[in-house]
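Training component of the fellowship. As part of building independent skills, the fellow (R.M.) carried out the full modelling exercise for a liganded target. The chosen ligand was adenosine-5'-diphosphate. The inputs are recorded below so that the supervisory panel can assess the work.
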Amino acid sequence: MSEPTADSLRQALAAIKDPASGRDIVAAGLVEGVQVKAGLVQVSLLTDRAHAQAMEPVRREAERVLAGQPGVQNATVVLTAHKAPPAPAATAADGKPKLLPDVKAIVAVASGKGGVGKSTVAVNLAVALARQGLKVGLLDADIYGPSLPRMLGLNRKPEVQGDRMIPLEAWGLKAMSIGFLVDADTPMIWRGPMVMGALEQMMGQVNWGPLDIMIVDMPPGTGDAQLTMAQRVALAGAVIVSTPQDIALIDARRGVKMFERTRVPVLGLVENMSYFCCPNCNHRAEIFGHGGARKEAEAMGSEFLGEIPLVLDIRQAGDAGTPIVAAAPDSAPAQAFAKVAARLWDKVGGGATAAGPRIVIS
Ligand SMILES: Nc1ncnc2c1ncn2[C@@H]1O[C@H](COP(=O)(O)OP(=O)(O)O)[C@@H](O)[C@H]1O
Ligand SMILES: [Mg+2]
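Fellow's submitted model of the complex:
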């Protein structure tokens, strides 16, 4: 039997509709790289992370159609993502230079809703990175509900040098929070523009010095702070925290969408309060049906960075101002944070840390 041609296969694929545009997938420009060799066919379908899930039935249908063509023994169709978003520009759209040029990687820790453990994850990741020998900054972008003073056990006011504030230091990292400047009982009656002002000041008028990585604890939701971060700094990307409950995952998706709209890459998902570890018998109970974030990450085409158990020690350590990664670095929960931190550092192109082997390629 004669070998099918790329053209004839494209024609066959034109019978399939692209759910997003309503056109056929060939006319919509989704079919890329049709390869045929000895009856084996390979085709790429172009998609983006946001539509990967919706494209899965299309992918399967394409395989079915191709496999039914004369001369085809086996057909493989893969979804390929659009080219990576362009590297963050050095200047914002308004021409203002981007803040924090001396920070190698700025990572926002975000979620769609509050109470999922965003601050807990941000703080422990930051401490874990600092313990690996990196120069780490931790910025509390939650102007309305700052958590860093409590979680780091800091209640001093930062010193001022000239027109700049000196960040506070704890657990091997530098930290700044509106909570260091404003008394805990002062009502946060700030409005959007002031949020942007305060956030910009905490980036531009603080003596952070050169840093390997800055972790930003974002407020919940998709408001002004997210926009400010996306516009005013060159974000390496966002880490989305979610709990296993479906509802939280729907919110996580919202968080992902927000960053995608602003062209900030989503570095991955972390599942917090993933399973409950009984402190008495070490029994692992998957209260909320664990694993949702991993599936969700796969469906959205982003990476699953790891899972953090629900353990009393994490909350108690956080409340006491001694993050568990610092208080009990060898404990299982601290190790879980360290693993996510290592994966994150890898994701931002960090490579080997001072603790690990340094590989020099010349
Ligand atoms: N893995 C966990 N195990 C136990 N308690 C946790 C865990 N993650 C967060 N918590 C607790 O849940 C509460 C909310 O966490 P927090 O980090 O403040 O959430 P967010 O910043 O998303 O609002 C805090 O009391 C925190 O100590
Ligand atoms: Mg918080």
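The panel noted the following from the submitted structure. Residues 244 and 291 are 7 Å apart (CA to CA). Residues 118-119, 142, 147, 217 surround magnesium ion (ligand 2) (CB under 6 Å).
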